[in-house]
Amino acid sequence: MDGGLRMGTSAGRWVLAGAVAGSSLASLDATVVNVALARIGADFGADFADLQWITNGYTLPLAAFILLGGVLGDMFGRRRIFIIGTVWFALASALCGASVSTGMLIAARALQGVGAALLIPESLAILSATFVGTDRGRAIGAWSGLGGVATAVGPFLGGWLVEINWRLVFWINLPVAAVVVAIAWRHVPETGGGSGPKARIDLLGVATVVVALSALTYAATTAGQRGWDTPVIVVALVGLLASIVFVWIERRTDHPLVRLELFANRVFAATNLVTVFIYAALSLFFFLLVLQLQVVSGWTPLRAGTSLLPVTVLMLLLSARSGALAERIGPRPLMTAGSLLAAAGFAFAMRIGPAADYLLDVLPAVVLLGLGLAGVVAPLTSAVLGAAPREQAGAASGINNAVARSAGLLAIAIVPAAAGLSGAGVSDMAAVDSGFDFSMRVGIGLLLVAAATSWFGVGRVVPEEKGLQDPSAPQRLPVHLHSCCPLSAPALHPSPPSAS
Questions:
Q1: What is the spatial distance between Cα 41 and Cα 263, in angstroms, rounded to a whole number?
Q2: pLDDT tens digit sequence for 99-129
């Protein structure tokens, strides 16, 4: 049922401000922490495997629990879960900033990931539930665009804070979270959790996906340090077995965490496969580039972080146009061309070394990558949503988001380990340089496979244009209203409210 808020009113502006600030709180963290990794490693005397865990300690619970976060909002109230997630995230951020060892930081980052999994889906669900239908698209478009601006300034902000003290990257979240909670408590109406049929939690599904991702991430990272000894192999087998059990559970439960029937659609399955390749490559790029620039090229954190700005600016300027074009001509050509452009960006990045020049080496790489991502991400979202029934748009978008985060998680665990980085010291210039080159080659391969999968696996037009959707079903928000910079995962999309 439509909410009663309108854009341009005081109440509408407050709700939009709270949603934007909340989602930006979590999305910024994904970009600014990468800039701080070199300083964190130097302060704690960490090896490269510790940096992998500092990153994946956040991504793992976020990927595992983000679908559950949406269900909890439906059950107990979206504002309530949004506030709980924000407070949880803030307290975990305080622990991150106060960490005295890598172990403490990794544990605090895991708590941050849980908070983000509660916070991120509710920020969008609140807008979908509170604005009237005629203004909902405008509200979500504004949320997307303003969130994109926040993401764009993230690397610059992160670099500036790290120049002062890397702990500020985490402590800056505290005043922002306080503002978010104050706005939500005073101005955001409660939705969900009321009368009517209650959602049910797929506890077995949640447990098995956590075991699967944790075991596979641990095995891949640890194997890079000590090889595939018996304990590591056993943990890897546990992860594979948990993955199989997860699929078995989801096929049989009447309240699945993941609606596997959506994968029966060839376009949906192919597009999620493209998502795996794209976001695995992207995670490698953003994890390793700022380390390469600081450790090997000798750049300051501020200069290294700012070097990424063209990627987010190009995505912010072009993603909406790319999404609109995809809804007219279909996503296949744009996804294919975008993947190839991004691969060219990775190839240029291989020029970055000890004497890297921004204009000659770094700028061409990030511009090509930004153009490629602007071409591929919005059409990818269009393909996912076009392949799913309109009433399941939220579920399809959530699955695609979780797939992307899981792909990034496993890529950061596997590829640096395969490159021999896991046992290296953070200040080992030769190892970091060699590992960066190896990872860029892997990224090129992933993006070329993404291009091929896009061309041969995705249809010529969006399935919706073929008349596969029920005209009486709720209308979904057009993708061209999303002008965000989804560097960690594709933008979430709300399920249309029922017409009742």
A1: 41
A2: 999 999 999 999 999 999 998 888 878 887 7
Fold of 264-500: Growth Hormone; Chain: A; (1.20.1250)
Give residue-wise pLDDT tens across range 356-380: 999 999 999 999 999 999 888 888 8
Where does residue 463 rank: exposed (0-12), middle (13-18), buried (19+ CB within 10 A)?
Answer: buried
Backbone angles phi, psi at 425, to 5 degrees: -80, 155
Which sequence spans correspond to the domains of the chain?
1-198, 202-254, 264-500
Tell me: domain 1-198, CATH 1.10.472.80, correct?
A: no
Shortest CA distance to 111 belongs to which of 129, 84, 74, 138? 84
pLDDT in tens, 200-257: 788 898 899 999 999 999 998 888 777 888 899 999 999 999 999 999 999 988 888 8
Question: Could you tell me the two tokens for 326?
Answer: 């995809």
Tell me whether the CATH fold assigned to 1-198 matches the one assigned to 264-500: yes
**Token digits for 12?**
């509408």
Is residue 105 within 8 A of residue 40, CB to CB? The reply is: yes
CB 206 within 8 A of CB 230: no
Within 8 A by CB and 6+ apart from 360, the residues are: 351
CA distances from 49 to 219, 282, 412 (A): 12, 19, 10
Return all residues near 403 (Cβ < 8 A) that are at least 6 apart: 272, 275, 276, 279
Q: Which of the residues in the chain have pLDDT under 70?
A: 1-3, 133-134, 137, 145, 193-199, 391, 459-500
